[in-house]
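1st attempt posting a full record on here, be nice pls
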Amino acid sequence: MTAMLRKYRLTIYLALVVACALGALLCIHITTAAVRAEARERFFEQYNRQQFLMAEMASHTLEEKFATFHRNLDLVVSLFEEKEVTSRRAREVEGTLKKIYGVLADTPVIDLTVFDSEGIAVASEPYDAYTLGRSFAWRDYYRWAREQKQPGHMYVSSFMRLAGGRYRGDKAMIVAEGIYSPRKKFLGVAIFSLNFDDMVRRGISAIHIGKHGKAWLMDNSNHTVLVDPNGQLAGMGLEEAFLPKWPDLYDRLRQTDDGKPGSGSYVYEDPADPHKRLRKLGSHYPVHIEGRLWTLGVSTPEREAEAQLSAFLNRQERFAYTLLLTILAVAMLVVGFLSNWNRILSGQVERHTRDLSEARTRLESTFDELLVTKKIAAVGRLALGLVHEIRNPLSAIQMNMQMIRKKIKPDGALRENFSIAEGEIRRLNRLLTDVLDFARSRPLRLQKAELSGIVAAPLQLLSHRLEEQGIRCELRIESPLPLVCDAEQIHQVLLNLILNAIEAMEQSQGERVLSVAACSRDGMAVIVVSDTGAGIAPEKREHLFEPFFTTKTAGGGLGLSILQTIVMRHGGLVTVDGDSGPGAAFTVTLPLSGPPQQELNAP
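the predicted structure (as tokens):
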């Protein structure tokens, strides 16, 4: 028996190796299939997440565009609402209308037109002799404004084909706002004509992911396709476009009427071969525009997303076959290799997930900075015009008041009234100076400076006021901390923040502490100015850096906007933290080596 065992020992070992190899092969097959399915599912989830982010950002951009149109319509309406809408009044405000139209030169706005209460066009920018004097009382927007009488509301039309002019053949739409007297008497209508095709080219058609991943847009208010990636369905109703052949897709699109975002997949016809079906990955996000609901989506054929995954799957297969050959040679090491393989795959999936998350964060940050920059630029251009329009008559008023005061030499109550009026004129002049500082930032004068010296200057300047109000100052400044910056402008930033902190603690009943901390972190200088005041309510915190927004009883609301502009021109960032009590903290982050080249070249 022993001799027989010795004789067949090799055969037994070989049989055991083959059995282990077959078992390992079965395990590899099962494990590989499971890992492939998991990797495929996660990849599709991340792909759809990326499409969701693109749809969300495009939706916010579209809403912001229409909000810009609404704000400028409000400006046009304000020129007429205190008077009758007439040709004479239109000529009086012609310069302002040109400026408003000029601000919108880089937008899809084609023209600006104002109609009187009879529907007669009394103003047009750019000038159009064919339009002026004609009656448009039959148009939907005119009837809406006359009948609804909703001051401040904006009308948004469906799109239509332009029959003439340089945009002939393009689709256009109208946004309008009624002009009313303070007692809601109908005076007329102001409208912008928009080049819908231009707006689509800039904000929707430009969205691409992969080769065939494109954006689409539908109007939920009347269930109409507004933008179709293939250009075949635009203008068609959902029932006409989808219900006969694709009822499942029709039902899915109708479900977007709830105004909620979503992601998923659906079956649709192949544009290359209408007789074939293909599955698409899609995400959508609602667009809310003045009472109308649109839905903007991004969709990609699933096969394209799978093609991007194929390289990874091919590497996985090659690795599996190599592992199988190793198992045949060394069967006992299979379990170790499989465990290591699973760890490598899990690590790759986690790294891809982290990379996508970081990319999303950077994209959101860049988008927010772009919106802030565009808002500041638009307000700056408008502010320059308004300052020049106001300052000259204000100077004339002040000069005449001084002459009158010298001539009549008032006393008593009349003298006090003159003092109040002159004080208000000086206050308006200070506000106009702030507006000019906000709109026309001077070039940066960069030099290497020690941050502790920059911080010490405003504290020394305000030391007497800090002592008077019983405010204890805590300093935690890393030294040395050299910084390339415009020291005067950074001084202005810190002075503004410290003054705000002092004013925030004026009504505080507890201990009053002003804290200023600074350190270097990842090539950036981080400065934190905090106080123990009442804090900032969340609904106010998100508007703090908007021009002319203020929580104070006095002031023009430009201090933090100017501060933010200075920090951004240095390539930095300013944020605020602190709910309503106790205290608030402003964090300024600046690059130690100075602003990047594009920031230096910025106007």
